[in-house]
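User: Quick one: structure for sequence A, then sequence B.

Assistant: Sequence A:
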Amino acid sequence: MGKEKAFEDYEPESGQGLRLFYLPDDVHVVTAWDSDVLVIDTRTWSVKQVLTEEGVLQPLLAMSGDRKSLAAVDWVEGDVHMWRWSDKGEFEEVMTGRGLASAIGISNAVVSHGGERLASVDADGRISLLDIRTGRVVLTSVVQEPGLENLVFSRDARTLAHAFTSGSRSGLELWDARNGEYLGQWALETSTPPTDAEEPALRLAPGSGSDVLTLDSGGTLLRRSLDIADWRAKLCRIVDDPLSQADHDRYLSDLTVDAPCRP
């Protein structure tokens, strides 16, 4: 059994809840503490690295799925600091930027799996997309529907998804993460929540590969793919190839597609 230790005087940044991430070595963690961003050695509970100085940011932290890219977003001003975990066993700053929509504060931020892009959403539901390599920021033209504020990138960082629940409707909203173009909604059938449940909400989390996980208030957990090629492969396994004339006229009459399931 491991010994319990405490990091004295620990106080996570107020208002944003605890955000603490293990780094690739499974020894160090990073967290926001009293406006600082600290890397802590869990063997000794000593601070190994201070990424921002006190008072520079009101930091909202987000970590990439590979645990190598860290974003600290000033949830008041919309400024961004990005670091990448190096072979030296420490963070190196790769960019700083600004321009994220931050009306009444940024409520959530996420980084794509490989650290290519960052997305944030402010209190007005406006989503900002930052290309970490170029520093370019685009704002989506469509404000997200009511729902929890969690956003999820597809594994290839090309698509951004948000789960919404509005009245009896639930589903995913999708954006092109490269240019902010709104791709539309994917309506989902969800189970009936218990009568004593709080306001129904659809929760969203990253999955493996191109998948996302959805959990509805009825307790149903499902894996769904955001990869168009994956959907094409699944559909081509269950339809005749070539399509009959009737099916072609029904599904593909407005497209120039001769043999959709052939290489």
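Sequence B:
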Amino acid sequence: MNNSSIRAFGIALFLVGAMLALATRFDLHIGLPTKASSGEENVEELQKKLEQANKEIALLKEQVNQAPKKNTQKTDAPETKAKDNHESADAPAANVTTMTLQIYSGITPYIVAQKLEDGDIIANSVEMELLLANPKYARSLQIGSYEVNSSMSLEEIAKLITGKK
């Protein structure tokens, strides 16, 4: 045997080893057999998990259907309190929506505005986002929980969550 054929064989072995190392590194299946598994056992196990998940989904849907009934009974009184504390006598209590706004570290004005719009506190999230981007309020969001309601103006909400007076 000459040196060139031994060298070629060594290079081939190196390349195959490198390919196998990369395949395992990036979790690629290149046709190598893995552990033997019974397909029927996996199917039965997955069907059991599916049945359990369907039961959980049905239970959660049932809870969600019951939750609005409970919430409508409970929210009537707090809305009336919010009217007494924060509103003039012009607006009816049924139009007031209250929510707890959670401000956490790193939250952006965009996310704050979206949360307020999703909670029906404000009608247009872009206005609130632009207000919070104003130099007066920029980078001043204070971490914490804030009770806000739909009767508050954008300026009042901005002052509340930034701690400005």
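Residues 89 and 123 are 22 Å apart (CA to CA). Confidence is low (pLDDT under 50) at residues 73-92.

User: Thanks, that's what I needed.
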